[in-house]
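Example 366, ligand uridine-diphosphate-N-acetylglucosamine.
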Amino acid sequence: MLRLASVVGARPNFMKIAPLLAEMNRRPEIIEPILIHTGQHYDDSLNDSFFRELDIPRPDINLEIGSGTHAGQTGRIMIELEPALARFKPDWVIVVGDVNSTMAATLVAAKMNIRVAHVEAGLRSRDRTMPEEINRLVTDAVADLLLTPSPDADQNLIREGISPEKIVFVGNIMIDTLHQSLEMSRASDLLGRLELEPGKYCAMTLHRPSNVDDQQTLAGILGALAEIQREIPVVFPMHPRTRARISEFGLSQCFASMPNLVVTEPLGYLDFLSLYSNSKMVLTDSGGIQEETTVLGIPCLTLRDTTERPITMTEGTNRLVGNHPDRIKEEAFAVLKGERRPGRVPELWDGKTAGRIVDAILKASI
Ligand code: UD1
């Protein structure tokens, strides 16, 4: 019997762990799954709603860490996780993505000589001002099994001197959840509630510190948004960090002159899937949304200068546009005029990644 402890903490972890836990639960004679939640995200809109909609089992323990500075949050996760791992004694710790919980859990497990499997290993933006890039580099340097979503990730790891035996190309786990949820998302009444018609609006998300923590940058992006919403309605589910900065910088009044902008709370997984899958275009600075739009063939403008997911540009519908207002407007209007890049779904983004991950862990355990 193999005891596998999955550690999650923040919103983008939940859609990655859901199919993996389901796959482990399909093999009860050989796997005992344990779920540890660090509590990095705790709001209903960023946390509980995902557990409900994605049918994620109740965590065996919640460390209730909450918000803080990077060092404060990472340190508290490490301090609380150590006794939890001592108690559960897992054979492996499984971490996903690139959030602070991912890196903190990896460090604790590695020092306790517990093997670590990293799901979504090898992605690199090569921008070390991004907290996630530091998390990715540290996690991959000490994890024992590196489960990659795309061939570029394998190449990054090899280049960093990681032994090829540790690397397994398994595909994109988030797409398992996307495939399983698409049908269910059709029951969402979000578009009706917002009085929107499929294909006749855009969706936008924004939460990266590089876009929202600087007043001038944020004001510039909102200026571009003001012009885009003149052409087409834009739905903007707002992350708490962004909401806080807009109010702190005194930018809230600019929404008064944007009648076609619909600001909502952060949406649950199914409502958000319904929103972007029916949209004409997505503007975002998220990582995962670049991948989800690629799979559905929806044009995506990424408001960043770099991406750790280059395959969404080389094969998918994603375009990096940075955060200068003129460039955002120019690219957005081009898409609205009908300019599209034909995209294709990358290799192994087929909805069957969870099975390959569990197989890889079993094989590495022999
Ligand atoms: C984290 C991840 C980021 C991911 C994002 C998705 C890191 C370094 N960053 O960023 O990669 O894309 O999650 O959402 O791990 N807050 C709430 N309620 C919550 C959680 C946070 O209001 O449930 C607010 C707090 O004011 C907090 C701020 O959001 O200070 C930021 O939260 P934090 O977990 O530090 O990072 P995110 O910006 O959410």
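Summary: The domain at 2-171+349-365 is CATH 3.40.50.2000 (Rossmann fold).
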